[in-house]
């Protein structure tokens, strides 16, 4: 079976140029290295955004601020009972007061541990979904018990984070497109330089009956093969770095960082980048060579 990128030995002898060939391979290796890193960033940020949305869409916190500790505790128990009875509520739990005191300690010092210090009651609620109607029902239920109850959505707190993650995702996608465009430009320059170098040889081929399409096929195979070799080298290095960073982020114990990991489909798509760029290089080389030959020869 003959691969589309392979060339018989006469073609390699005709077009190989030693150092220039090696330079093309390393240029493509660098291009694919940066492209795969940008693609991994985009996939990782997209996964983190989806994970953040799933984690926070149905999470609420009810805050009760009452000067009377007895009334505050009674209202908290009433809210716990009533909210737990709402269909679609998966978990309702009051935050431990000792935990709240520890969170306040960096700002209040030891005074934050004083049991006489008035402290709000905090109730964490997990819903089955982020349905606005369900969230509004929980809010109305809590306020029916205590008009001073404040219901906060976690998604609102972290909306700037979600917006930043979305921006990074689009930025990474733009980088991939930019690198693809740069690769096409490099191929165009390489093809035109090759035509100038082998102008006399191409003229002889035309005299022997070769068509522009046959000549273009020589260049596109050569450039596609160089792109594929360089792309495999760059992609392998980039995937190794991504895997290393993924293992390190998994040890941080952060829910947000855990969502940055790549899915299996992401790895497969990143691994196919060399082939995709080789096909892009082949098409760009064909167009460049045919246009140049059509104008000059």
Describe the structure.
With 297 residues, the chain is an alpha+beta fold. 72% of the residues lie in helices and 8% in strands. The chain has twelve helices and four strands. Strands 2-3-1-4 form a four-stranded antiparallel β-sheet. The longest helix is centred in the middle third of the chain and has 39 residues, at 159-197. The two termini are 34 Å apart.
User: What is the multimeric organization of the chains shown?
Assistant: single chain
Structural class: alpha+beta
- First CA to last CA: what distance? 34 Å
What pattern of helices and strands is seen along the backbone? HHEHEHEHEHHHHHHH
- Shape, please? rod-shaped
Number of E strands: 4
Give the tally of structural domains.
Answer: 2
Helix content: over 70%
Overall pLDDT metric: 77
Q: Into which percentage range does the β-strand content fall? A: 5-15%
CA radius of gyration is 31 Å
Instruction: Strand order, main sheet: write it out.
Output: 2-3-1-4
The number of helical segments is 12
Major sheet: 4 strands, antiparallel
Uncertain ranges = 1-14
């Amino acid at each position: 079976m003959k691969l589309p990128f392979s060339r018989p030995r006469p073609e390699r002898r005709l077009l190989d140029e030693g150092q220039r060939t090696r330079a093309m391979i390393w240029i493509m290796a660098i291009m694919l290295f940066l492209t795969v890193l940008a693609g991994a960033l985009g996939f990782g940020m997209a996964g983190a955004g989806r994970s953040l949305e799933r984690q926070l869409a149905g999470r609420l916190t009810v805050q009760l601020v009452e000067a009377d500790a007895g009334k505050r505790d009674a209202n908290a128990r009433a809210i716990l009972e009533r909210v737990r009875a709402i269909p679609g509520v998966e978990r309702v739990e009051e935050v431990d007061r000792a935990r709240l005191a520890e969170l306040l300690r960096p700002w209040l010092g030891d005074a934050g541990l004083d049991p006489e210090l008035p402290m709000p009651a905090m109730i964490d609620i997990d819903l089955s979904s982020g349905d606005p109607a369900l969230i509004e029902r929980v809010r109305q239920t809590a306020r029916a018990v205590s008009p001073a109850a404040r219901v906060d959505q976690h998604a609102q707190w972290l909306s700037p984070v979600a917006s930043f993650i979305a921006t990074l995702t689009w930025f990474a996608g733009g980088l991939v497109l930019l690198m693809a465009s740069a690769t096409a430009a490099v191929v165009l320059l390489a093809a035109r330089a090759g035509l100038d170098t082998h102008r006399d040889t191409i003229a002889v081929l035309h005299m022997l009956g070769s068509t522009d399409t046959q000549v273009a096929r020589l260049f596109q195979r050569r450039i596609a093969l160089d792109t594929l070799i360089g792309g495999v080298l760059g992609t392998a290095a980039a995937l190794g770095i991504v895997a290393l960073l993924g293992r390190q982020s998994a040890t941080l114990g952060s829910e947000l960082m855990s969502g940055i990991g790549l899915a299996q489909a992401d790895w497969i798509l990143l691994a196919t980048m060399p082939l995709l760029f080789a096909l892009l290089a082949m098409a760009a080389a064909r167009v460049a060579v045919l246009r140049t030959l059509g104008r000059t020869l």
